[in-house]
User: Fold this.
Amino acid sequence: MVKGYSRPRSLDEALEMLARLTPRALPIAGGTDLLVDLREGRLGECHLVDISRLEELKVLEKRSGKIRVGAGLTFSEVERSGLLRECAPVLVKASSQVGSLQIRNVGTIGGNVAHCSPAADTIPALLVHRAKVVLRSSNGSREVALEALLGGPYKALLAPGELITEFVLEDASHMWGEFSKIGRRRELAIARLSLAALARKEDGRIGELYLALGAGTPVPRRMESAERALLGKRPQEGDLWEAGWLMAQEMVSVSGPRPSTHYKEKAACGLLVRTLLPLLEDGS
Amino acid sequence: MEGPLILKLLRSPRPHARILSINTERAMKNDGVEAIFTAKDIPGRNLIGLITKDQPLLAHDKVRFVGEPVALVAARDEESAIRGVEEVEVVYEDLPAIFTPDEALDPGAVPIHEKGNLLHRRVVVKGDVEDALSRAHLVVERTYSTPFLEHACLEPDAGWGYVDKDGTLVIVASTQNPHYDQREVAELLGVEKERVRVIQAATGGGFGSKLDLTVQGFIGLALYHLRRPVKLTLSREEVFLATPKRHAMKIWMRTAARRDGRLLALEAKIICDTGAYSSYGVAVATRAAVHATGPYEIENVRVESLAVYTNNPIAGAMRGFGVPQVAFAHESQMDILAEGLGIDPLEIRRINAMRPESVTATGQVLGESVGLLEALDAVEPHYREAMEEWKKGPRRPYTARGVGLGAMWYGIGNTGVRNPSTVKVQLDERGRVVLYIGAADMGQGSTTVLVQMASETLGISPEEMEVVIADTGLTPDAGASSASRQTYISGNALVRACRKLSETLLEEASRLTGLPRGELVLRGGNVVSKEKPERLVSLAELAALAKERGVSLEFEGHFDPETTPLDPSTGQGIPYATYSFACQMAQVEVDLLTGQVEVRRIVAAHDVGKAINPKGVVGQIRGGVAMGVGFALMEEFLPGSTRSFKDYHIPTAADMPEVIPIIVESSEPTGPFGAKGVGEPALIPTAPAILNAIADALGERIYALPATLERVCEASIRAGWPKMGKGGGPR
Assistant:
């Protein structure tokens, strides 16, 4: 139940407030996940600290070859950014497939990561962009690899009073990227599976490849077995099937068998084939 | 008026349990809590039900499903009401709970109701099935299943009430059925019907879910005791948990055909999970049985349909009353037969299509309004184009395209029982026409259609009429807005009332002008001469004159379609006065890698008799298609786990295919201006057409709805589509 609400004017004030009100303090940005939890009574007594209007969380710039993306950017803002379209194509594509337009207009990428759903759309995208996460609290700041933050389903490893302020991405200019998602309907659907892919071809061979699977494992993760299987290859269709198979096996070995495995291992393999078809010799 | 008290319900957390005690003491100590009612506070008969009275408003001795109302709390504010609900103490003793009809029908099963677990058995038999089977060239036997569905109305059930100056309990609620509500509430309270007035509030969708009492009984009970305004709004979660669902069904079908495609026999066994209480269960099981042949003439029929109690949520009415479920089965059978016989799916439907004077499974000889062949003809050019060109067109790798047909028939009105409507029309002293229509309009457009009919009959533009809708204090009983019946039945009643008025007006005008009655007509709010369309006398003048002469200008029109009850042992009879027919075609693209299905286009040809409001008909068709896409691909209510829109998916605008509506008008001689109905028919053929299209794309069929990602993927693998694994790829 919400016992209080504050809207700090600056990031510092927000961090101070979070520190003071811990453990009851709950940062709220778009609120698209938080309000669902609130409505279902899962959050106990809390004090909302509204960070949705903090300009400090809306950083968007390229500096020394890295792309800094503010955690407070909405999915729609990400989608519209010329810089990100050029330098972070997978994040843009993933953001454009989140929920519905209404959700994309208010939901933020920082919130998406902090909520840490296994099916979060932007996490696989950030993983293939090899994102680092900048975290701040009233005690200072730290930077960690995104993987290190993903503690488990709905468990981002944030310290009390800590906020995600930005993501630092590798520059993916001139790379090919795709984000594919399987849902039970075309919009407003939680991913049954999603796949983020970022690649660079050199003389017809795959020079670089990053793959991350969403909704297939407790938290989204890079799928290195499939990456390795394709690196350096001039891929044929059979190679994609093999990589898909490897990825499906990796998924199952991480998650263990579940009722959904029967479908998901076929679909994961199919999703990889579907997504990477443009990388075939004659495809791109 | 003082602010209303807020009502909230305590609902059973147990699927089947005896209630040992209910203690409200602690809850009553809450400051804001004004009153708590339980079964013992119901002054009249604590038993409700549209057809079979088997459901207590508030549980007394036991509960039969999770969500069943046990106590009603009235409080000054929402928070107190919630706290009150939380603090009522109920001691239950669990009973074995039954969640499938198979378990429920086991001779050793615990009886959910005293009379046992079989609510209703409907049989329809005709001809000699054994003999027909022995003569058949091909017999197809399959089992189909469909899930519970939630109506997913835009507006959750809600209402409020107050006590009128003269002591009448006034209930304003979202409903499809105000006059039934009035009778039921009066019985609950043990008061004269006239002491209860039900007014339909603007209703954000019904689809059958607002035919039962939802909030009305609780509002009535609180008003009876508290004599002050009260309000009850169900949360979306409560709507999911506790309001009636579409019946889950298991349908076994055996269909026999000659080598030339002519159907010889149909056998079916239909098992409907009616949940904890009957609601419309009897009607759904019956309608499913009557419609099991599909819109085809079949000489030999043996159908048995059972409605079975379980401890699942109540299943009741939902757009189509059991016909969408059986249509999925009979239309799948038609395509399987077509394939087995090497006949085109459209052709096999044409060969067997009902036409004027066809004899139905219940032995009814159809009249002249049977527009199925016209609907098939209308779809045909689209079908040929889709089969011959679109299907072979360029597409993404690892996708397959399919084209499928679905046809249907649907009896207008309730099945073999009286279902009359009365409409009143009045020319008031000011010369204004006022229509008193009891039919609830929940967005389907009955008011518009009925006003158009009045306008046409009385020669007055719709803007110049006043309309009073669905208020038991003012309007006569038009029956429920269900069974696609209001255009046909209330339309007829209204036209009759308007004709009486117009005849009287013309007589009065004839008396006044000395001109023969036959030369006069009503036009533009005046009486004019047929010869010279100039105003002779206005309605206002006639009204004044009639008042002087003491002539009443208030008329009622009444209509009850001619039907006969179905014979209990054979199901023979005339269940409906008329039927609507339709054929839809679906074009789908299936992703063979992931099981995703995209419905690209639906062509929907519907015989509505006469489209009184073509835009309204098209709206119904589009809405029906949307609901059909959900039924086909994604909707599934799982008792015990589906809680809200979070886990219950209905199609979004992005899931909608292109829809090409085609209106077919095979005029119904007994219909108002030839009209029949379209509300439910719009939904029925969509899912069968989509499932047939998926089967066409894959070469493999799905027998259980919805066709989820998982089921489509499975079917695609069964069909030998891309094989996963090392060295996998296309076979």
